[in-house]
Design a protein that fits this description.
By secondary structure, the chain is an alpha/beta fold. Helix content is 34%, strand content 16%. The protein has a domain at 1-12 and 44-106: Rossmann fold, CATH 3.40.50. The model is unreliable at 121-125 (pLDDT under 50).
Length: 128
């Protein structure tokens, strides 16, 4: 889907994915000590907000300005601090070795593009 389509999807009255974290993210991350997390393709920010609530310092990236605006509103409503970054994952270049966790949950990209956008951290961070 293109950016405009995601903006339109997130502009609806309801949360697209719900407010709680993804159950697989919860299962995998709960045992980890908090650190610095990067949530790629955050959408409405449910996983980023959950991580922040567990003490993680979170940077959350998405190309949907509408999704990020909703995420920022939800985080503020819950008193959570997250750094929201509006960027296309195909162009985004985070600082190398700056994160203890890179979260990739349901990014909708072809396999080659997905590999290219996350290859920066294969050696540096645990993956969820």
């Amino acid at each position: 889907m293109e950016q405009a389509a995601w903006d339109e999807r997130y502009a609806g009255p309801d949360l697209v994915w719900g407010a709680g974290s993804n159950r697989f993210v919860t299962e995998e991350v709960t045992p980890l000590p908090p650190g610095r997390a990067l949530d790629l393709g955050t959408g409405e920010g449910r996983n980023a907000i959950w991580l922040a609530g567990r003490g993680w310092h979170v940077t959350a990236v998405d190309f949907s300005a509408v999704g990020l605006a909703r995420a920022a509103w939800l985080a503020a409503e819950r008193g959570m601090s997250v750094k929201w970054v509006h960027a296309d994952l195909l162009d985004y270049q985070p600082p190398r070795d700056a994160h203890d966790l890179v979260l990739v949950a349901y990014i909708h990209l072809p396999p080659d593009s997905l590999t290219a956008c996350v290859s920066f951290s294969v050696e540096a961070s645990p993956w969820v």
